[in-house]
Amino acid sequence: MLAARIGGQSELLGDHRRKTAVESRVTQEEIKKEPEKPINREKLCPLLLRVFTTNNGRHHRMDEFSRRNVPSSELQIYTWMDATLKELTSLIKEVYPEARKKGTHFNFAIVFTDIKIPGYRVKEIGSTMSGRKGTDDSMTLQSQKFQIGDYLDIVITPPNRAPPPSGRMRPY
Fold this sequence. Notes:
Keywords: Repressor, Transcription, Transcription regulation. This protein is mostly beta strands.
């Protein structure tokens, strides 16, 4: 008698049972390289993205987010899950003219509820800069595991106070 079950992680060979371990060999790079499902913006309704901005050099504190309270700097954007950080940067620059200056730095983070502990958590996802191309420009909400209901928190830093470029940005 010969049987093998990967799901149960055991093998039956003759009358002897032997436990085997099955482990995933998928790396983070391979996960990131998986193609995203294309979104047809003509047929799919956009989602409401609640964006909170700050220009003090730091993301909002998590205690500023609660069931009945959010920071006052809310910007509501209708977009899709395949929206890139560069696309979102352009939309923000339409609303905040001072953010249009070349060299303005945008640091993006997802704010989400944590099911393990009450409250919110923050996950920094990338940054863009006005007038420069960067590696995070083409990053999408979908690729960063954004879920409908999450918030986006963006630190807008003017060019005279921007952190030094990390070598990932390049001029147009």
